[in-house]
Fold this protein.
Amino acid sequence: MLISVLILSALGVAFGLGLGWAALRFRVDSDPVVDRIDALLPQTQCAQCGYPGCRPYAEAISRDEADINQCPPGGDAGIRALADLLGREAKPLNPENGEETSKTVVLIDEARCIGCTLCIQACPVDAIVGAAKLMHTVIKSECTGCNLCLPPCPVDCIDIIKAETKPPRWLRPRPNSALEKVVLQ
Amino acid sequence: MTLTRQIELAQEAGIRTHHFHGGLRLRHHKKVSCQVAVERPPLPELLVVPLLQHAGDVTEPLVAVGDNVLKGQQIGQCQPCAAVHSPVSGTVEAIEERPMSHPSGQPGPCVVIRPDGNEQWVNLNPLGDWLNASSDSLIMQMQNCGLAGLGGAVFPTHAKTLDGRDRKTHTLILNGVECEPYISCDEMLMREQPGKIILGARILRRALGAERVVIAIEDQMGVVEMALTGSAEFAESENISVVKVPTIYPEGGERQLIQVLTGLQVPAGGRPSDLGLVCQNVATAAAVAEAVTEGRPLIERYVTVTGNGISHPRNFKALFGTPVSHLVDCCGGYTADVARLVVGGPMMGYPLDSDSAPVVKASNCVLALSARDIAAPQPEMPCIRCGECARVCPALLLPQQLHLQIKNELWKPVEEYGLSACIECGCCDYVCPSHIPLVDWFRYGKGELRKQALENEATELARKRFEEREARLLGLKHQRAEKMKHRKQMLNDKTMQQDRIRASIQRAESKGKRKPDEQTGGQTDDA
């Protein structure tokens, strides 16, 4: 009786120490769920979800504060991916957060720009170059299309344009019907 | 058993020792365009040379509107890809967007040249003594002459050679297996210029540091074999062999040909150089010979103009930029029942909307199909899981599975089922009893996968920039807080206060002393 109690207590202490050591040794600094949610978000940093960026939104989802249908750039595909990850039911995009649109970028009309730097401060990914009283311009390849630079602009010189595709980046359309097939006699 | 020994044995036995999975036996339709000797067509009125003739970034024009150009003068450059040269001497009439030979049908930047008819060449710089030239200088010559794979993929030759050399290539395979029906430009080239091909093969072999050359041709090409083995260059060359392979479409595919010759499979996602092999088209080898021994840039190629929609099908040696309509006119024009124009063969070619599109490095064939070649459009029926597509797939894929996955946008399984290994040969399409345009689906799927890869890249970039900005803003906030703290401390600290008062008194005093000096200094300057 006594021996079994002692053995079990000794085992308990040993495992407890082992687990305690492992908790310190293999501690995970950031929450892996947040990382995995963040990996599925489109990183536009557009704040349409109501949080100041994709990572804050990911954190809010992981804390169960935000729903998974608040990201318009991610669209239905994004919601489906989040639902898969979190084991929830997919639902349609919340219209309060906006609508799913095709990818755009912004263009500064350089003739009208007064160099106020307000858009530079608003850009979440530092995609606008310029300095006070000097013309600003958008680095097109870095622009995520979040449109956060539009509201602060005092002269309304920023336009939304379609992100372009040319032959090298040309993608074949989704086939919709059988084409005429060549028959070799 | 070494590879070379395998090939030797196969040759001695007169049989192949290997085969690839699937494939189709198709009617050839080649004889019709091989009846007349190849000639250069008369100069067209205008040549439209696209600056973009291969995958990659846009080539920059090196000439301006109104410039006089010489034949062979470089007119476009693009660092990682191949240079573009003027096919004639003449005047640059425009640099603008024109219809190109491209599956997208979209226009692209082109240099429009009006020939002056003098055919005056630019100064050519051949490598006189190529037998003793270094591999680097040979590869440099290929790059300067704008050489690219003429089999259809237009991969820059210098890049392929460089990669092959760095990965210790032992055997160069010259691909003369023109397996698609109708196309006969390589066959005509091998018949008419076997010496040039063998010379080019030797130069490529030297540049690669390889030991052997294997020229693969179809078993129906008896005349070609005689031409190749009967040429003077062949007699004086060592370690060059001509191997006949059975005619099964798509045996001319690089991976399929390697499998037939060696029994080895190029790993998925890998390159032939992983196996110590480099595969080049025979026309590329001929172009290498011209580039190295004569210094001639790549400005023309053999093009087959054929099909039931052409009055007199034949092969031409056409300058790049020659409009397709000009070549058709030189063949006696279209027949009455012409229905569709295709660039490339019937299996892998793409339809051309307008015959004003020019001949480019990739155009091996212009195929005009008549109404009787084309079946009436068939409605797409559901897949009945017959498995015919998997039986003929030379890449050992499961087309029916891939089709359903792509249709339902299940991109992860699409990747896992190896869509990237699809060579778009069209065999599955050809046998599908439900008329499903499988290859169109696969091309769409590949594009989507590429798009996703690009999007992931952009997403990663945005994430990185967002995080860096957050870190920077946080740093600034900390800095400001630190400053505030410091200031508060100073306000509270009595001794520091007094130190500061003393310091400012001292500053004021020294300023008062310095002032008259500065004034005198200023006066002397004025004087």
In short: Residues 10 and 16 of chain B are 5 Å apart (CA to CA). Chain B is about 40% helix and 15% strand. Chain B touches chain A through 56 residues (CB under 8 Å). The first helix of chain B runs from residue 3 to 13.
